[in-house]
Design goal:
Blueprint: H1 2-20, E1 24-31, E2 39-45, E3 57-61, E4 64-71, H2 72-77, E5 80-86, E6 93-97, H3 99-109, E7 112-114
Parallel strand pairs: 1-7
Antiparallel strand pairs: 1-4, 2-3, 2-5, 5-6
């Protein structure tokens, strides 16, 4: 009887963990820039009062080709996924996506692709 109880408890815990775990989606991201060598930053944003925006995350310099893992909840709950490109002597540029747009572009093109043409600052 004790063996069955331990087995049922183990099954319950396994099912509970599986129900709480969220599938992770890997989104390939490619960012070029003209000129090359710009810093690439990434931020998830939420407009609701009960949620804060996440910190900006440095992804690397252009040309950049990475894979970013996000949970299903992150893709559905965030209002925007913003990519920011910056380079000394140029105006920064931002591009915003919804979670659905990220997934759709990754599926249709094989990567989320952005190639901003940077504008010199005065």
């Amino acid at each position: 009887m004790q063996v069955i109880s331990k087995f049922l408890f183990a099954v319950f815990i396994s099912l509970s963990i599986a129900a709480c775990s969220s599938p992770v989606r890997t989104v390939p991201l490619t960012v070029q820039s003209d000129p090359l060598g710009a810093y690439v930053m990434f931020q998830m944003q939420a407009d609701r009062e009960d949620e804060r925006n996440y910190d900006w995350v440095f992804l690397g310099n252009t040309p950049l080709k990475i894979r970013r893992s996000m949970t299903k909840e992150e893709l559905e709950d965030a209002d925007a996924f913003v990519i920011r490109v910056m380079k000394d002597g140029y105006h920064e540029q931002k591009k915003s996506y919804t979670g659905k747009q990220l997934v759709d572009e990754a599926k249709s093109k094989g990567t989320v692709f952005w190639n901003p043409r940077l504008v010199p600052s005065d």
